[in-house]
Amino acid sequence: MILPIFLWLPSMRQIITWLLVILNIAFYIHFSKDQEIYNKKINLVYDDDVYIRLQGQLFSQIIDRNPNESNAILDHLASSAVKGNTTSQMSLGRLALRSPLFRKYAEEFKFSGDEVQYNYWKKNYSELISLQKQDPSFWMGVSSIGSSWKSWVSYQYVHGGFWHLVSNLWFLLIFGYFLERLLGSFLFLMLYTFSGVFAAVIFQSLSGLSVAPLVGASGSIFGIMSFVLTLYWNKNIRCFYWILPVQGYYGIKKIPSKFVYLMWIVSGLAGYLSTMEEFGGIAHAAHVGGFIFGISSAFAFIGYKKYKKQTKAPADIFVLTAVLAGYNK
User: Fold this and answer.
1) Number of other CB atoms surrounding residue 94 within 10 Å
2) pTM, whole model, 2 decimals?
């Protein structure tokens, strides 16, 4: 494990960095209680094995009748579930909760089976959908339930738990401090926000929209982090490292920026490539999207600085904003 550490906290001059921290904390405090309440209710439905097994049976029929919209993993599970394999039925039942394919056909599907069992599934499924629509993670997150330009921004301020929030704010304070001083408050805010927006777009493009929502500031954090690491490629960053709980294998040391940079890129790509869409998990594709936007913006910034130096052009915040957004003017 390698974790960048503070040299000092941002001063109050870094107003946007502190404002983003405050907003993330305020959103967490305001919505965490509702998230906890609805998560408990949703988990009660998830824990009903009868409901999950019936849902797996239904999903297997949907897959069987819509083969062009399925894939090899779902086809294999469906084939086994149709034959009565309980394990496959349970697996499909849980995967159905994340699947846009299932959501597309479930409510109007002509289910072949016991009418009483179907009504039992229908009752629980309707309750689950109602709970999801009220859960802040779903209506503010990016998912197949709701995905718009508003959710591309709002999802950045909703977190799945306390430690999810703390880890993101840790990196925001460290890297936001440098960037707000370098770019100014306005450009830093634009970089942060559009890194998150681009991360959501890449997440949708690479992973597809799932019923499970994408939430958290990770895409934005990876954007500002990759921007700093690109600019300071040849510098050293003070980090806490931990390899083994043995003297000499942990401590605080200055580590080359390029090493930290490559470590995070490799871990993000490896996470994305090793995660199957059906099983969800950490939104590695969003991390990759944030990295791409941060790197691209850093090179655009470097190019602009060279252009400004050669031409001795006056600083123009609107021109620089356009450059960071990827436009040529």
Assistant:
1) 17
2) 0.77
